[in-house]
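Annex B. Sample input.
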Amino acid sequence: DVEEKVKKALAHVLSEESELSPLLQKITGLHQAVFSQLLLGRTSTDSRIWI
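Annex B, continued. Sample output.
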């Protein structure tokens, strides 16, 4: 599933970076709290992570 691949790729990048670059923040449009939830595996499949 494409969505799962994207989530895994983002989690991988975020695990290597302590803070998101301004460009990545702008591209993704996600808040830091959502990234934290994603990394912790707490984002439910029906929640909207794209803002």
